[in-house]
Amino acid sequence: MKEFLIISNDNGTIPYVLQSNTESQVTNYLKSCKNNSTIIDLDIHEINTYKLINGELFTVQEEESEDKTIGGRYSVKQVTYSIHKKNGEKILKASYNFKSEKGWVWSSKFLCFDKIEYPREKAFEWLLRRMPSNIKEEYFDLSPLIPSNKDITTEVIHEICKHLHRPDYIDIQMNSAGYPEITEEYWEV
Q1: SS3 breakdown of the chain: % helix, strand, coil, rounded to 5?
Q2: What is the pLDDT of residues 25-77, one digit of tens each?
Q3: How is 36-90 classified by DSSP, letter by letter?
Q4: Within 10 Å of residue 108's Cβ, how many Cβ atoms?
Q5: What is the pTM of this model?
Q6: How high is the pLDDT of residue 24?
Q7: d(Cα 9, Cα 6) in Å, to the nearest integer?
Q8: Which of 68, 92, 99, 91 is nearest to 170 (CA)?
Q9: 109-154, pLDDT tens digit by residue?
């Protein structure tokens, strides 16, 4: 499954992620929307930018910037959630969208709710920090929402994600592979 960041040429529209198996599905989708957009292939190994011009998808060759590093605190505009498979295991991917001095950027966290012990405990810590208190009280009995409950799977968590608070700000540092990494998250009180 590939992910494409869709940025509308209408400045008032927030960018969003479209998941698709092929570029032709993206082209067909955008033709049906009848809007001019910039499309960025978010595949880590082959990041390409596309423009939809007269119903056709064209690759845009961008000039290489000398320095693509970013760092600092940024306001989060959107968080999207998806399920990915890696080595046969399902992993929840939380993608944070923010605008840096280099433009719109996505940084992702991968959460292992189906693993055991430490990775699962860290994933639950992440989840409970984002869950609104009224959601906890009204919709969920928190007693089963603990790492030792084997019924809580990635699919169950994915359904809960639509209720989660997004952080207002995140701190970003470039990791050793050259990608932005979230080091801290903040909520306004």
Answers
A1: 20, 40, 40
A2: 766 766 676 556 666 666 544 445 555 555 555 565 555 545 667 889 999 99
A3: -EEEEE--TT---EEEEETTEEEEEPPPPPS-----EEEEEEEEEEEEEEETTEE
A4: 20
A5: 0.60
A6: 73
A7: 10
A8: 99
A9: 999 988 878 888 898 889 888 887 655 444 455 556 666 677 788 8
The CA distance from 83 to 93, in Å, is 6
Order of all β-strands in the sheet with 16-20: 16-20, 2-8, 37-41, 49-53, 56-60
> E strand or H helix at 181, and its extent?
strand 180-186
Contact between 92 and 81 (Cβ < 8 Å): yes
Q: Which residues contact 138 (CB under 8 A, 6 or more apart)?
A: none
Task: Tell me how far apart the alpha carbons of residues 133 and 136 are, in angstroms, rounded to a whole number.
Answer: 5
48 contacts 59 by C-beta, under 8 angstroms: yes
